[in-house]
Amino acid sequence: MGAAGFRATPGVLIVPLQNEFGWNRAVISIAVSINLILFGLTGPFAAALMDRFGVRAVTVGALITVATGALLTTVMNAPWQLYLLWGVVVGLGTGCMASVLAATVANRWFVHRRGLVLGALTAAGATGQLIFLPGLGYLAQSAGWRLAAITVALAALVVVPVVALFMRNRPADLGLRAYGATEADSMPSNTGSPILNALRGLRLGVRSRDFWLLGGSFFICGASTNGLIGTHLIPASMDHGMAEVTAASLLAVIGVFDVIGTLASGYLTDRIDSRWLLFFYYGLRGLSLLFLPYVFGSPQFALILFIVFYGLDWVATVPPTVQLARRVFGQQNFAIVYGWIFAAHQLGAASIAFAAGAVRTFFGDYQLAFMSSGLLCLLAAGLVLRIARARPGRVEAREPGVGAEAPAYS
């Protein structure tokens, strides 16, 4: 929840930073892009660190890192400082609490109902967006963007003692097994260098065609969510005369429907072929984005329609993508390999965050960015249907030092 709220904050700050420092949106978007890249690339290494040192230690370190970066931005006066602090420092911190954390926790603590649990944990990200953005938008508009940044830092620090006191690394820490687990489901901890384990996971992934299909579709997912709407919906709405608080509230309302959609997606992931779920999600998102450029000048009903359909779809893609990664790469391997797939998600987000800012700077509006992203989502809908089905009774070769064997796919 915190990671999503902290990561989404730059969307609220773009216009205030532009007004105070005179930086154009392309310049500010570079910081957002750096943040998004590190938010993703940190994932596989964070998963390896969690295997080695525990979820609690990694999460505490991440929260302190976010607080430090956010607090220091209040004294910046040059773009390179924005790139370093909000791009690098906050990007590294939020990356350690990203989707990989939810996947790791769901994998360790649940055997039955994993899809539903992962949907609930992923929906927490939407809740963070819902809680943070309207308040931060109000603070940025009424009291200045620095108070909004200080609020982010304080929120991160408040969570530190809660995590340190109450978070547990594995069910075994409490003398328990994962929900629905048997002895056969127990997983050993990975040993060795976290960096080497992360790189071995990448080597395992790149040998599989399905890795590239999952990574390619998730690249488009990130481009069309965090990169485009998460970063640029607020300034795009303000371009059409909407107040910043109202625009931030739009993104928060998307978060409300995102909670519903992601919980439903988790439930469906336990019951329906994940490939067809992703086909439906990407197709719906593509049509929504193609519709968006015509929404701003239309009656309010059209905007509400976009918010509902796009919101239901925001991160509904995560549970079926994680499910496919687990089935392709195996119980022990998947967290690190999924970390690399999630890195592709954030590379897509970073690319479009900068590209959309550049489009706005050079063309004066976001229409080209919205339309292009919609078409890419329709492409992703086709890609996911090429992911192979499982063939029971066979296993792929094991990658030494990463984990257990994975089921083979056709």
Detail the topology: elements first, then pairings.
Blueprint: H1 2-8, H2 10-21, H3 25-53, H4 55-72, H5 79-95, H6 99-109, H7 114-142, H8 145-166, H9 194-206, H10 209-227, H11 229-239, H12 244-269, H13 274-291, H14 300-313, H15 318-329, H16 334-363, H17 367-384, E1 390-395, E2 407-409
Helix pairs in contact: 1-5, 1-7, 2-3, 2-11, 3-4, 3-5, 3-6, 3-9, 3-16, 4-5, 4-8, 6-7, 6-16, 7-8, 7-12, 7-15, 9-16, 10-11, 10-15, 10-16, 10-17, 11-12, 12-14, 12-15, 13-14, 13-15, 13-17, 15-16, 16-17
Defining key terms:
two-stranded antiparallel sheet, Growth Hormone, Chain: A, globular, 75% helix, single chain, 410 residues, 17 helices, disordered C terminus, mainly alpha
Summarize the structure.
By secondary structure, this protein is an all-alpha fold.
Mind telling me the CATH superfamily name of the largest domain? MFS general substrate transporter like domains
Strand content: under 5%
Structural class: mainly alpha
Q: Which of globular, elongated, flat, extended, rod-shaped describes the shape?
A: globular
Total of domains: 2
CATH architectural designation of the largest domain: Up-down Bundle
Mean pLDDT: 82
CATH classification, class level of the largest domain: Mainly Alpha
Instruction: Compute the separation of the termini in Å.
Output: 37 Å
Question: Uncertain regions: pLDDT < 50 for 5+ in a row?
Answer: 392-410
Task: Give your account of this protein's structure.
There is one protein chain. By secondary structure, this protein is an all-alpha fold. The protein folds into 2 domains: 170 residues, MFS general substrate transporter like domains (Growth Hormone, Chain: A, Up-down Bundle), CATH 1.20.1250.20; 196 residues, MFS general substrate transporter like domains (Growth Hormone, Chain: A, Up-down Bundle). It contains 17 helices and 2 strands. It has a two-stranded antiparallel ribbon with strand order 1-2. Helix 3 packs across helix 9. It is globular and about 60 Å long. The chain starts with a helix and ends with a strand. The C terminus is likely disordered.
